[in-house]
Specification:
Blueprint lengths: L6 H13 L3 E6 L13 E3 L6 E10 L7 H17 L4 E10 L5 E6 L8 E6 L3 E11 L3
Parallel strand pairs: 2-4
Antiparallel strand pairs: 1-3, 3-7, 4-7, 5-6
Keywords: Signal
Protein name: Lipoprotein
Organism: Aerolutibacter ruishenii
């Protein structure tokens, strides 16, 4: 059991460690094109008229407290991955929230007597996920 004075530091370090758990996965549907700048990748909610699919993408934000910044971060990860693949667009398929595979909590307790009083407080966290298709939009 950690000394009571170390609990806040332990909780903060655990939160920071877990907060870095963000990822992007891809399934290639066509050969990649030469990479482009992230700023050139446009997000589409409706499919453009003519395009080529390059890859199916899924990304997640870092674990946080359900802020809109998490959604922005997950979509930015899609755009970054699409740019690496030479896509000039991402057709957004959906965004949602999931409970992360790990939880963050702080526990307290008394263990120097035969009668123990134990309790814990969980910190509710979420992770935002976004799915899309990296596309190359063909200009007419």
């Amino acid at each position: 059991m950690l000394p009571r004075r170390l609990l806040p530091a332990f909780a903060l370090s655990t939160l920071l460690l877990v907060g870095g758990c963000a990822s992007t996965h891809r399934v290639m549907l066509a050969p990649p094109r030469p990479a482009v700048a992230v700023e050139q990748v446009k997000v589409y909610h409706v499919a453009p008229r003519r395009f080529q699919e390059i890859a199916r993408l899924e990304s997640s934000s870092a674990i946080g407290f359900g802020t809109s910044g998490q959604t922005d971060a997950a979509i930015l990860r899609l755009r970054r991955e699409a740019a690496k693949l030479g896509a000039n667009g991402v057709l957004l398929l959906g965004v949602g929230s999931v409970a992360p595979p790990v939880s963050v909590g702080v526990g307290t307790g008394v263990h120097r007597s035969h009668v123990g009083v134990y309790g814990s407080m969980g910190i509710p966290t979420t992770q935002r996920q976004a799915a899309g298709v990296a596309i190359y939009v063909i200009e007419e």
